[in-house]
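Exercise 3.2. Students should predict the tertiary structure of the chain below and write it as structure tokens, then compare their answer with the key that follows.

Predict this chain's 3D structure.
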Amino acid sequence: MKCPFCGKENTKVIDSRPADDNSSIRRRRLCDECGKRFTTYEKVETIPLIVIKKDNSREQYDRSKIEAGVLRACHKRPISVNRIHQLIDDVETEIFNLEEREIPSSMIGELVMDKLKDLEAVAYVRFASVYREFKDVDIFMDELKKMLK
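Answer key:
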């Protein structure tokens, strides 16, 4: 492992433990050259997941797309970055636990909306309005009424 400070490859692991999400290993490392410490995370490499888009095209799963959508929905809301990342981790865990090679983007969107609904109402409505492509205010109001019940 290369040291992020000096770029040398002489580092050693001084502590190793499961990360908070229990899906990766957190390692504290010490550089033999410069003596600085840093943390790395190791994740198990999974089978490639293909996402089936609305137009039936297929592309490789990309966590950053979920992250971008959730961050946009949570923009200027009182939600910590840690809670946002936990939501994304939870969605990703559910997706990979299905053990499917292909998954419809609609299923991913529904998972994200379910998690956002529990996290924060405004973020949920923002995400839903884009994801479900609300065409007019009536559809938007119907969604709000469902939330209030």
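Discussion points: The longest helix spans residues 81-97. Residues 50-148 form one domain.
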